[in-house]
Write a structure and sequence with these properties.
Layout: H1 8-16, E1 20-25, E2 28-37, E3 42-50
Antiparallel strand pairs: 1-2, 2-3
Length: 51
């Protein structure tokens, strides 16, 4: 998280309100959300795997 500059708030946002949830195998889901960061603003995809 620190190396990529991702805050706990951003992770919480993905886990509580993901744009997409993908089942990858039994009992494992990937939560994805797009967000805008930086200057100039760029859109990034944040994906978090959760068991």
């Amino acid at each position: 998280m620190e190396r990529r500059g991702i805050s706990k708030t951003e992770i919480a946002r993905v886990l509580t309100a993901p744009e997409q949830v993908i089942p990858v195998r039994p009992f494992r889901m990937v939560y994805q959300t797009r967000f805008v960061r930086g200057e100039p603003p760029r859109t990034y995809l944040f994906a978090q795997s959760f068991c």
